[in-house]
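Bug #77: duplicate submission created two jobs. Keeping one. Sequence:
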Amino acid sequence: METVNAVGRRKAAVARVILKEGNGAITINKRPLEVYFPSSILQFIVKQPLTTLGVDGNYDIHVNLDGGGYKGQAEALRLGIARALVKVNPEDKAVLRRAGFMTRDPRTVERKKPGQPKARKRFQFSKR
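Kept job's structure:
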């Protein structure tokens, strides 16, 4: 099997994923998964597509992660891994879609409007 590339996005985070056969090492920005995401919850989020299909130790994953916060980065990486796994084996798409890993979460930060302090907050109204 040759290498497979995929991109996952969430909020402002972008994860470029390179998947190839190996022994299950996940490297993010040249650091291991456990160093980049010390939280076990975020590690669980990242590994969800792999555990759902039962292929945890079959692929080496190299990731270039950029932008956003740690939660958005973890969810962007989850989408990128799911998309790469579907490129490897298209029959897995139905299982991953049912688990909700194939959908790009479209929610992003609302822009700030002119004449207001924030996106929806208004300056205090004064009648007199």
